[in-house]
Design goal:
The protein has a 16-stranded mixed beta sheet that branches. Strands 1-14 form a two-stranded parallel sheet. Strands 4-5 form a two-stranded antiparallel sheet. The longest helix is centred in the N-terminal third of the chain and has 29 residues, at 2-30. The chain is built from twelve helices and 28 strands. The N and C termini lie far apart (114 Å). The chain is of the alpha+beta class.
């Protein structure tokens, strides 16, 4: 009888414990930003091959969370302003076919393919409106547990081939690195008590040096009302451009890792160099140095970026070379070069203030996530990249009064008041909606080849049947042959300022010590033993001691 009662009590306690465990699990599931359990798409098919340190490596791409549909268990869009309700919704997964059909993202069909392509305009099979632009992150398909691949590039070269033939003026094909969390802040718990269960698998965790505030999910904070929280981190723009203009820019931040600031809770200051250390040969030298004048933008271009450290292990130089069928040109970033350019252009050297190349190198040493994006700029119309952008209040040069770029005379006129105002030879259009978005344009600069002197609108046309037609918006770019390799021929290591200072201090100390020693011996003379300075004629050898 006692034994039976004991077993019965144990069984009851075990049953209660099982229910408690199940309840705890259910609560945890309910309080999670989930990947939809009903037919969840894992997106493993979006892969390509890269070469990393001489070995083939399978990488993948995942679409940024901000571009995904957010829906609830009833398959309806999440519209509640309640944080926990938003965080418990699902970020839509997409298979390889949907990536291409809905977002215009193409990953090579061949398992041995090295190519990733991003189209600008796409209309999904069941979509009522087109998607414009996209952003993807490179993932590590070989790592246990997955995650974004972290590129660590000090004393390394990152190269890729880019095809820009179908990227017009006013559009940006971007290949860049950002200091995102490698797991997309997976497992982080928001202030509402909801866990991030989507993480890198659904493209969560974006940040850059512009500190965007339009993200649905912000790093480890969960869902926040768009426009309230800044998501900041270092950014290294390997390539930003189109078939008419190109730039490389380093954007370090005061911290070499990601950070946030809630603007609704008080004043926020951007901790990053938003303007960055930009290198754009046209901006510095003008006509004759437009991107398409230096290389044929109809054909694929190999871009090699090398990150050189000094003898202290600090990033000292970034060298970038564009190569194509015997043609090439290079541009580089150094602290001294940035300081000189900032003085020439009359710009504050925020780059140096936040730590310059050394600080950029800290982020590169920790590892950064490779990002590909294609986008148009409704706010500034991409004038900062390929046309005229100046501070008229400061310089007196008003781009709106110089809308057509005809050549050298326009460049020199601007240089007198606002050096660096013209970043490319594209005519100045202040408004996106009335220019690139909805109409064709033809450029003035006579050196622009006929095949790209005129371009069509960016927006898909709306037919009489209220359906969109994107067939006349063929814009997009492709990147292939991504490769990381150690630098084969390091330059003569520069002696850093700290090393030079140390050598100088030690040298002065040794010289002073020698002078004091010699002076003392001369003064001391024979009181201290044999004089250091004496008349050699008085020396007498006594050989008897040798016997």
């Amino acid at each position: 009888m006692p034994m039976t009662a004991s077993r019965s009590g144990f069984a009851l306690r075990r049953a209660k414990l099982s229910w408690l465990i199940l309840l705890a699990w259910a609560v945890d599931v309910l309080l999670s930003q989930q990947i939809d359990p009903k037919g969840a798409v894992q997106e493993e098919g979006n892969t390509f091959l890269a070469e990393l340190d001489g070995e083939p490596h399978r990488l993948g791409v995942v679409l940024d969370a901000n571009y995904r549909w957010l829906y609830d268990s009833a398959s309806k869009s999440c519209s509640s302003a309640n944080e926990s309700a938003q965080e418990s919704c699902y970020l839509q997964g997409s298979d390889k076919e949907s990536y291409q059909g809905t977002y215009g993202i193409f990953v090579g069909a061949d398992p041995e393919s090295t190519e990733v392509g991003l189209g600008y305009a796409a209309l999904g099979q069941y979509a009522s409106t087109p998607n414009y632009g996209s952003r993807v992150f490179v993932t590590d398909m070989s790592a246990e547990g997955g995650g974004y691949y972290l590129f660590k590039l000090i004393n390394r070269e990152l190269s890729f081939t880019i095809n820009l033939r179908n990227v017009p003026a006013g559009m940006n094909a971007a290949v860049y690195l950002v200091s995102m969390d490698s797991m997309g802040n997976l497992g982080a718990e928001s202030r509402s008590g909801v866990k991030n269960e989507a993480g890198w698998k659904r493209g969560v965790g974006y940040c850059d040096a512009q500190c965007p505030t339009d993200l649905k999910f912000v790093q480890n904070l969960g869902w926040r009302e768009p426009g309230t929280v800044m998501s900041c981190c270092p950014e290294m723009d390997l390539f930003e451009g189109n078939r008419l203009a190109a730039a490389m820019t380093a954007h370090p931040c005061a911290a070499a890792v990601q950070s946030t600031c809630d603007t609704s809770a008080g004043k926020c200051t951007n901790p990053c160099d938003t303007d960055g250390a930009d290198t754009n040969l046209f901006r510095r030298h003008g006509p004759g140095h437009a991107f398409f004048e230096l290389i044929d933008t109809q054909k694929p271009i190999k871009v090699r970026t090398q990150f050189f450290a000094d003898d202290m292990g600090l990033l000292a130089r970034i060298l970038q070379t564009y190569e194509q069928s015997g043609r090439s040109f290079s541009m580089n970033i150094t602290d001294a070069g940035v300081a000189d350019q900032k003085r020439t252009f009359g710009e504050a050297n925020v780059f140096a203030a936040v730590g310059g190349l050394a600080q950029m190198g800290s982020a590169l040493e920790k590892g950064m996530v490779l990002t590909l994006a294609i986008w148009s700029d409704a706010g500034a119309n991409m004038n900062w990249l390929d046309s005229c952008a100046s501070n008229a209040t400061k310089s007196g040069y008003e781009c709106a009064n110089h809308t057509n770029f005809t050549g050298e005379s326009d460049f020199r006129e601007a240089w007198k008041q606002a050096p660096g105002a013209w970043r490319g030879p594209v005519d100045y259009y202040p408004d996106f909606a009335s220019s690139f978005a909805n109409r064709s344009v033809r450029f003035t600069y006579p050196s622009i080849p006929e095949w790209m002197v005129e371009q069509g609108p960016f927006q898909c046309s709306l037919g009489a049947d209220s359906k969109y037609d994107c067939s006349k918006v063929p814009y997009g770019f492709a990147v292939s042959d991504i490769k990381v390799s150690p630098l084969e021929h390091l330059p003569v290591e520069r002696v850093s300022w700290f090393t030079r200072l140390l050598i100088g201090v030690v040298g002065i100390a040794l010289a002073l010590a020698a002078a004091v020693f010699v002076g003392y011996r001369v003064w001391c003379g024979e009181k201290c033993g044999k004089p250091l300075l004496h008349d050699s004629s008085t020396d007498v050898s006594d050989d008897s001691s040798a016997e």
